[in-house]
Design goal:
Layout lengths: L10 H67 L2 H22 L12 H14 L7 H20 L2 H12 L10 H30 L2 H14 L4 H24 L4
Helix pairs in contact: 1-2, 1-3, 1-6, 1-8, 3-4, 3-5, 4-5
């Protein structure tokens, strides 16, 4: 009876296996972190769009009335100070109008379906640039990751599926090299992945601390109490608009 000999792994091969396991775990974590960041960006962009469409246009109208009032006063006072105030008010009105009617205002509501999140995570885990083996591979993955983020931001599940399928069937998806080279490559990949995870955490913290994120948090909290936070802001702004229109009418008719 033949005794089958099992070759023991060399220390280098054992380390390589351990690093592969570590990289697999970090890649999964990285995909989760990228998903969290992409979701936060998409949710904030969608909220900003809704805010600008509902609230931004009212602020724009309010600034326009303020500018009209300042211009009326400048016409009557005919002083450099009054003209300067009017010019400043008009510039603010134009800036508000641009913000309320620009690209950010066109972003539509974003719905995070379980399938969309799963597809993004799968795609990010496959194509992430920080898991590249060399510079050429990294450049290719950076292009693909931009496509993944764009598809996710649009809620395009079909595009994510196509990216995954194309990547899995590409020649570049087949890998193979010696133990020493693989180990060096893995160590570099591990360092890049760790660095990217750290960078994502910082970016999420920064985004979460923005005025837009704080405003969205207030809206989300109001929703838990079955209140529409933006609707409440609208009501307040419409009251201010009525007041300034009346003030303008009084001033234009010769009142104080």
């Amino acid at each position: 009876m033949k005794t089958e000999l099992v070759r023991r792994l060399t220390p280098e091969e054992e380390e390589l296996a351990a690093k592969r396991d570590e990289l697999a775990q970090l890649e999964a974590q990285l995909a989760d972190e990228e998903l969290a960041l992409a979701s936060l960006k998409a949710e904030l962009a969608a909220f900003e769009g809704e805010y600008l469409r509902r609230i931004g246009v009212l602020y724009s109208e309010l600034d326009d009335w303020n500018a009209r009032l300042a211009e009326l006063r400048a016409e009557r006072a005919a002083t450099p100070e009054a003209r300067s105030e009017a010019a400043t008010a008009r510039a603010q009105a134009e800036e508000s109008y641009s913000a309320a009617h620009g690209e950010a205002a066109q972003v539509q509501p974003f719905t995070l379906s379980p399938d969309l999140k799963r597809l993004y995570r799968d795609a990010a885990k496959r194509v992430h640039p920080d898991t590249a083996s060399d510079d050429a591979d990294r450049a290719r993955r950076e292009r693909l990751m931009k496509e993944v983020n764009a598809a996710y931001g649009c809620g395009d599940e079909g595009a994510l599926r196509r990216i995954i399928a194309d990547f899995d069937s590409s020649p570049e998806a087949v890998q193979g090299a010696g133990v020493g080279a693989d180990l060096i490559r893995l160590l570099r990949q591990l360092r890049r992945v760790r660095d990217r995870i750290s960078a994502i955490k910082v970016e999420i913290a920064v985004l979460s601390g923005t005025d837009l994120a704080k405003l969205k948090a207030k809206a989300d909290f109001a929703a838990t109490e079955e209140r529409d936070f933006l609707e409440e802001m609208e009501a307040s702004l419409r009251g201010r608009l009525n007041a300034i229109r009346q003030q303008f009418e009084v001033s234009s008719s010769g009142g104080a």
